[in-house]
Structure formats: C-alpha cells, structure tokens
Amino acid sequence: MNLVHHLSKNDCVGAIDGTHIRVKVSPSEAPKYRGTASDSRILKNALTRQCPIKIPEGKYYLVDAGFMLRSGLITPYRGERYHLKEYSRNPPRNARELFNLRHASLRNAIERAFGVVKKRFPIIASYIEPHYGVEKQKEIILACCILHNYLMNVDPDENILAEVDAELINNDIYQDQHRSSREESEDALRENY
C-alpha cells in the first residue's frame, strides 16, 4: 500500500506523544519516578497492560520518530525533512518528504492540544511545586484532560487557540536559532578535529 496516499484523517485515530507536567513525589516514591519514562516505554506499557489500549483494525495513531514503527503506529521517515517549517519555502522533493509533511501536519494537533490544556488549566503548567499528594496530582491531571476534551467540543476558546498557535510558531523560531548555533559549533568541532 502506498502510505503517502493512504495517510488521511479518515483512518487516523489520533496522535500519541508525551508532555512534561511537574509532579511532587515523596522520597520513598521518587525512585519509581526518577528520570521519568520515555514516551515509547509508556506506550508499550499501555499496549501490554492487563486492559490494553486497542487499536482498531485498519486504523492507526501518528507517533514521532522516538517510537517504533509497528502495526497501528505510523512514524515519519527518518533522515528526511519532517517539521512543517522546513517545508515553508521548499516543497517536498520526493514521496518520503511528502509523507513526512502530511504526517507532521496531522500530528501537529497533539502539540496544540498540550499547549491549550496547559493554558486553560495553569495548575498543570505551573513550575511551582504542587502541594497535593501524588494520587491527587494524578486525578487533577486526568480531570484537566477530560475537561479539556469536553470543552473543545462545546466551547473551543479561540483566544487560547490563537495564543498557543503563536507560541508554537515562536518556539519553532527559537529552536531554529538554537539549532543553528549548535550546528555551527558542531561544524567548528568537525573542522578542527
């Protein structure tokens, strides 16, 4: 099957990614959380636990390159341009880049969702250490996500959406600048090695 033509919103169940939310744990629980788990490990646990997440036959989730390509999970091609800004002045040059462009366009929704939920519920975006127990913190995070999904259906706040879109653009610009200076440093190291 030609994935470039198959990649569509009709068969895409959603996008999977992770985001950081500050949680305070007791010293006795810290080893369980230390370093946190990678997105791919969390997904593996969700797919293999006692009541696993089920991916409907013929459907898929979009995941980033940090995940393994497997049935029901579609990753971008590695070694090809991926981020939307990389295509702003230069259209895709081949089928793999076209696939990555479509993948990034659809998957961008998850970054936007994380931004909106954190804007809407500052309690989970705060850098201030929470003062609730870890179980209550989990309940708060889950409640914020459930409320976010409900509110997006009944009252999508256009101001928050616009703010998050602007932040995503500014973050891309910052990362480009940071990446450029890092690449210059790496080039200098290679030349002097």
TrEMBL record:
Family: Belongs to the HARBI1 family.
Name the record gives this protein: DDE Tnp4 domain-containing protein
Lineage: Eukaryota, Viridiplantae, Streptophyta, Embryophyta, Tracheophyta
Origin species: Hevea brasiliensis
Keywords attached to this entry: Hydrolase, Metal-binding, Nuclease, Nucleus
UniProt-listed InterPro entries: HARBI1-like, HARBI1_dom
Boundaries of every DDE Tnp4 domain copy: 32-149
Domain of life assignment: Eukaryota
Keyword Glycoprotein: no
Molecular-function GO terms, alphabetical: hydrolase activity; metal ion binding; nuclease activity
Cofactor: a divalent metal cation
Database matches in PANTHER family: NUCLEASE HARBI1, PTHR22930
Pfam family, one: DDE_Tnp_4
Major subcellular site: nucleus
GO CC list: nucleus
Record's subcellular location: Nucleus
